[in-house]
């Protein structure tokens, strides 16, 4: 009965969805617009100075996206023609292990509210951001876009992973039933300015940067949690920003596309720590491993062949920033903004 009621309500809402007038100007609304990726997109867009586009970068202060009415009110105020959906409850390995239910519920609510309001208000295109953690834990490598639903994700962050997977299901469902132009991207491990540098809840590189900052200031060893052996493909936030803008303008499939450096650019956690230490002027021999801590998933190597094939025609000049350069720029930003950076 509950299912029938839900279907009836959605059907009624679809029939009464507001008819929007065609706007000459493109209005792009970016949820999660003040975070790591949103800030990088804003920097790229401001450099472009395109008079035909209006970009609106939102934070959690602008609306509670887990609440249906708050989300609907937001769409009514902004009236976007396009949406980049970045807002999410995110965290590192240990935060995910402790709060899988919270990560599943909050992200599922946000995603459903955003996508359904995109449908109701006839948004021309919506690009949502997934993560490589959506892929199965037990799989062959490299992983590609066809393998998202081939098995359960890693147990450490299954709540976040399944919530993100469902965006792909919703995109394809809205596309098939209503011909909506909704899609998603799957970036690998992102880092850069405006990241969350919290040692407990941040991701690998920002967490390491903060630990090295403190170790250097206190003249102490850096304790690297785990064995340092797991491998990751890191993508600089400014590179990801340019690729997400490209996706909004040039990628027209409902199925996701992986946004990543190549397999040959995979880096171990230990080597990432060494690169940060070098950028910080911190002695590499003072990096000490603590194998009693969890390593998490050993690897999730992604194949970026689909992306590179598409870029040949529509973005032939694109090049990834070298890892050492990107780390050095991120370290410089963190030190310059230490007092106000998220940590």
In words, what does this structure look like?
With 343 residues, the protein is an alpha/beta fold. The protein is built from eleven helices and twelve strands. The chain has helices at 2-15, 36-48, 68-78, 93-98, 100-120, 158-178, 204-218, 237-250, 269-280, 305-314, 323-336, and strands at residues 26-31, 53-57, 82-85, 125-129, 182-187, 189-191, 222-225, 231-232, 234-236, 257-259, 267-268, 287-290. It has a six-stranded parallel beta sheet with strand order 2-1-3-4-5-10, with helices on both faces. α6 links the parallel β4 and β5. α2 packs across α8. The longest helix is centred in the N-terminal third of the chain and has 21 residues, at 100-120.
Describe the structure in brief.
The chain is an alpha/beta fold.
Count all strands and give the number.
Answer: 12
Mean pLDDT: 90
Query: What are the secondary-structure elements, in order, as H or E?
Result: HEHEHEHHEHEEHEEEHEEHEHH
Structural category: alpha/beta
**Shape assignment:** globular
Helix content class? 40-55%
Separation of termini? Answer: 46 Å
CA gyration radius, whole angstroms: 20 Å
Describe the sheet with the most strands. 6 strands, parallel
Number of helical stretches of at least 4 residues: 11
The percentage of residues in β strands lies in 5-15%
Q: Kindly report the spatial arrangement of strands forming the biggest sheet.
A: 2-1-3-4-5-10
Low-confidence parts: 1-18
């Amino acid at each position: 009965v509950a299912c029938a009621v839900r279907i009836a309500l959605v059907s009624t809402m679809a029939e009464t969805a507001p008819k929007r007038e065609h706007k000459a100007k493109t209005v792009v609304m970016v949820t999660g617009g003040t975070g790591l990726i949103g800030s990088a997109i804003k920097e790229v867009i401001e450099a472009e100075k395109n008079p035909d586009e209006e970009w609106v970068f939102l934070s959690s202060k602008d609306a509670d996206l887990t609440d249906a009415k708050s989300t609907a009110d937001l769409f009514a105020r902004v009236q976007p023609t396009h949406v980049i959906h970045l807002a999410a409850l995110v965290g590192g390995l240990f935060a995910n292990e402790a709060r899988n239910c919270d990560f599943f519920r909050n992200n599922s609510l946000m995603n459903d509210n955003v996508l359904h309001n995109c449908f109701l208000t006839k948004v021309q295109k919506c690009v949502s951001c997934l993560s490589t953690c959506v892929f199965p834990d037990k799989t062959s490598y490299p992983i590609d876009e066809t393998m998202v639903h081939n098995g359960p994700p890693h147990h450490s962050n299954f709540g976040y992973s399944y919530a993100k997977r469902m965006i792909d299901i919703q995109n394809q469902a809205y596309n098939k039933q209503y011909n909506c132009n909704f899609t998603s991207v799957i970036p690998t491990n992102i880092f850069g300015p405006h990241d969350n540098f919290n040692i407990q809840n941040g991701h690998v590189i920002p967490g390491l940067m903060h630990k090295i900052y403190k170790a250097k200031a206190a003249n102490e060893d850096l304790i690297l949690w785990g064995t340092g052996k797991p491998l990751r493909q890191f993508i600089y936030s400014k590179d990801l920003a340019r690729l997400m803008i490209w996706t909004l303008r040039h990628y027209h499939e409902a199925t996701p596309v992986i946004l990543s450096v190549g397999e040959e650019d995979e880096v171990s956690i230990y080597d990432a720590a060494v690169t940060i230490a070098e950028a910080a002027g911190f002695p590499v021999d003072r990096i000490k491993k603590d194998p009693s801590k969890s390593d998490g998933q050993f690897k999730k190597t992604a194949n970026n062949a689909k992306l590179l094939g598409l870029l040949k025609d529509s973005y032939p000049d694109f090049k990834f920033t070298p890892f050492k350069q990107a780390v050095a720029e991120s370290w410089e930003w963190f030190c310059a903004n230490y007092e106000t950076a998220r940590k």
